[in-house]
Structures are given as structure tokens and as C-alpha cells.
Amino acid sequence: xxxxxxxxxxxxxxxxxxxxxxxxxxxxxxxxxxxxxxxxxxxxxxxxxxxxxxxxxxxxxxxxxxxxxxxxxxxxxxxxxxxxxxxxxxxxxxxxxxxxxxxxxxxxxxxxxxxxxxxxxxxxxxxxxxxxxxxxxxxxxxxxxxxxxxxxxxxxxxxxxxxxxxxxxxxxxxxxxxxxxxxxxxxxxxxxxxxxxxxxxxxxxxxxxxxxxxxxxxxxxxxxxxxxxxxxxxxxxxxxxxxxxxxxxxxxxxxxxxxxxxxxxxxxxxxxxxxxxxxxxxxxxxxxxxxxxxxxxxxxxxxxxxxxxxxxxxx
Length: 315
Hints:
Helices cover 25% and strands 27% of the residues. By secondary structure, the protein is of the alpha+beta class.
């Protein structure tokens, strides 16, 4: 599927809120597996590229090397409400009746250009829809879920995903793109050719979620999460002051980790490539969106393809 769900067992769900003229937001859920994550925790890591963000739950993930809830993406001012709903979900799961400490992992980008972000419109029902409706297979991309109101390089951003095979293992990445810079696609200066954006244009953020089935440990997952920044850089990110750039990585492998450090390179390359393509997909799949008194155009696909051909990036 060229998606994070190519990692067996991983599920993705969205809830998109498109209400009146000013609400364009939502929530996206990534589940490392469909079971009880509190009881069967996933090994994980969070890498901070630039910490201008509100990533709830990250310190415990890195302290223990474990993820014990679905990974939820939303907008900046909805992190608290989404985390509260996620706690309701986790505490209600059979087997968690005695739980007295749960670490909700909730990440965000700011969709305030197209969305009434101060209204905090993502509620309990939307979190339940995303988590309970999460499924494997094809993943909807573009202006959906947590990407409903995001903007990247001056164009409509959103949710994108991609995957790679790395020897016997699979690596998948899902992104929520909402940042700025000088858009490059496969090395071609698309942003400049379209006369949009420019070097250093626009703050913002991006969340990049990496899933794999490889038998890696927390430290190796941290190295994989760090490689999302290489993929991000290839797209022309400005790495600005106000851009919260995070990589979250997990493995679905349940047994003790066995991968030697010397065998990690194919996974690191897979992360870089899948991150880069997931970002492109978030742009190519997005649609022109009007909200909160603004209109943000989708990336013009035909013009972009012509630029890529002119620069020899595609045939």
C-alpha cells in the first residue's frame, strides 16, 4: 500500500471536522497494534529535532523505551482534550481496571491559519472515532484527520504516508505536514519554479511517525526516529525557530531485540526515503481548502510534474 500500515498489525484512523466556515481540523490515530497497548506495550522512542511543540507523553517514552497508548495527532490547542479522551479510552479497556497511571502520547501542529483553533473543536467523540475506526490497509491522505487544516510551503499540507522494504523488514512513515521552507521534490526546486514560498518562508511544525517490524531496541529506534530529520531536510524545510519537528518511532516486534548495530543502515535509509515521500504525498493528496477566512491552494500537480520532468527528476 506504500503506507505505514504495510508494517503488519499497524492501524490508522482519522476523524475530520469540516464545520461551518471556520472549522477545519481533526485527529489522526496510529496504533502499533490492535490489542491492549497498556498491557502489551510497544518499544518506542521520540526524537526532538526542534522542540517548539507540545508533544505530551514524550519524556516517559524515552525514559522507559515504551509506548502504551495509541499515538494521536491533532492541533496545538487540542492536545489536552485529546489526551483526556484517550485516557477515557485506555481506562475503559478490559484488563486496565487497576491502572492508576497511563501515559497518553499526543502530538500536534498548529492549524490556526485555516481553523478556529481557539475553539478547540476536537472532542471525545472524534478521538473515539479515530481510535476505534483505525484499520490496516490503504490510508487516506491529504486534508484529512489531523491534516484537515494544515499548511506546508504555502500550499495545503496534511497527512501523508509511505513505506519501504529493508531486507527482511518493513519500515513505514506517516506525517502531519505543517511547516515552511523552499520546497524541493526529488532535488528539483519546485517552490522557486512555482514562485511560491522561498527560503525560510513560514514557521510551522511536522510530526513524523515511524513504524517497523524489525527486532530493534529503544536506542536503535531513537536512531531511526532521528533519520526522519534527514528526510525532512531533503524536502527543503527551513528548520525555523517556530517549527516543532519530531520523530516518533516504534516497532511491532514483541520478542527481545536481536538486530546488530551493523545491520541497522538499511532501516535508517528506509526511514529517510519513506519520510521524504510521505511528505510529498501529503502535498500531492491535499485539496484546496477554505476556512477561517483564508483559502490555501493545493499544490498544482500538473505544473509540478512538468517542473520535475524539466529537471530530470522523473521521466
